[in-house]
Design a protein that fits this description.
Length: 240
């Protein structure tokens, strides 16, 4: 049955969900990559479409921005809609010099200073793994179709890092292990919910700014660069 945040019926959501943050990116994927896509949710403007990619039924749904929003939508998909796999596709900032603009990252661990796990389950946990099952499929697909991705750990931040006035202080208090190569805002709650519900979660990120040299991309460059990540996610999803 529908939830307060999702009006779709259970059978309108596929077992595998591709999850960008931006609702308009979900629409872009549905319009340009899926066949026979149907809008199944528009509550709060958080669009979800279910259609077919190369004959495989998939859903693409937006998560919104930040740990709480991803936490709500991924929990509901896993818990109420019987979703088995979520592949987050998003953007990130590079924290290291060996990752450049438009490089793709496959996240293996997500670290956060957030108290998401404490708030939900009274567990003081700040590091969570992605699903090795999904990551192996994505890595294999990456090699097959020639879209390179680098496995790395990421910081899941509660603030948009370019707006932090004393960024050096934040970076100085981060753990040295695992090495955190990128900064984004949603992966931890996705990984935590997947582990909690016995489901699978992965996160692909495209580098759109670098904190080490202050380089950035225009909105048009961002969109064009995301197509490789979208294709890698979709080609991986049809193997599940």
């Amino acid at each position: 049955m529908p939830t307060p945040h999702n009006e779709a019926q259970i059978d309108e959501i596929a077992k595998t969900v591709i999850m960008p943050g931006d609702p308009l990116r979900a629409k872009y994927i549905a319009d340009n990559f899926l066949e026979n896509a149907t809008l199944v949710n528009k509550v709060r403007g958080m669009f979800a479409y279910t259609g077919f990619y190369k004959g495989t039924r998939l859903t693409v749904m937006a998560s919104g921005m930040g740990i709480p929003s991803m936490g709500i939508y991924s929990y509901e998909l896993y818990h109420f809609y019987n979703v088995e796999n979520i592949i987050r596709i998003g953007t990130c900032g590079s924290l290291v010099e060996d990752l450049d603009l438009l490089d793709l990252i496959l996240v293996d661990k997500s670290y956060t200073e957030s108290n998401y796990a404490l708030s939900l389950d009274s567990i003081d946990k700040h590091l969570e793994d992605s699903s090795s099952y999904l990551n192996l499929i994505i890595e294999s697909t990456s090699n097959e179709i020639g879209i390179k991705c680098t496995k790395a750990s990421s910081l899941c931040n509660e603030c948009f890092d370019p707006y932090i006035p004393e960024l050096d202080k934040m970076l100085a208090r981060l753990p040295s292990s695992p090495k955190l190569s990128a900064c984004e805002m949603e992966a931890f709650s996705l990984f935590y919910n997947a582990k909690r519900e016995g489901k699978n979660a992965a996160c692909l990120l495209s580098v759109v700014d670098t904190l080490t040299n202050k380089k950035g991309l225009s909105p048009e460059q961002r969109q064009n660069g995301l197509n490789a990540m979208i294709k890698l996610a979709l080609e991986s999803a049809i193997k599940l």
